[in-house]
Amino acid sequence: MSTTAKQALVLLAGGIVIAAFILRLARRRLLSTRYAIGWLVIGGLVALAAALMPFVGRLGRLANMTPTAVLLTMSSVLLLAISVQLSISVSQLQERLRTTAEAHALLARRLDELEQRGA
Description:
89% helix; elongated
């Protein structure tokens, strides 16, 4: 069995394992539907990469890289994209939390003022 075929089988198995793991997390409600769909797409892309292994070899030759280096580069870019997306999500959540905390503080102050006027 060629090295390319072995790598394709490993990618296919990896994609299936990722999808199964994500489905398990989603069923336990440990992962929201939004993120579960995203990770399932990534699992599908990993499995799809198995079918594209011959093209990865050609791309590697064009870039003067081994197929493994091409896959590692693509994986690194994907991880960077995920990190940026999660940073954006966390930033939005922090802004919402700050806005909610400010609104709560203003309401608490208003309630204190009303209670003092009533007393």
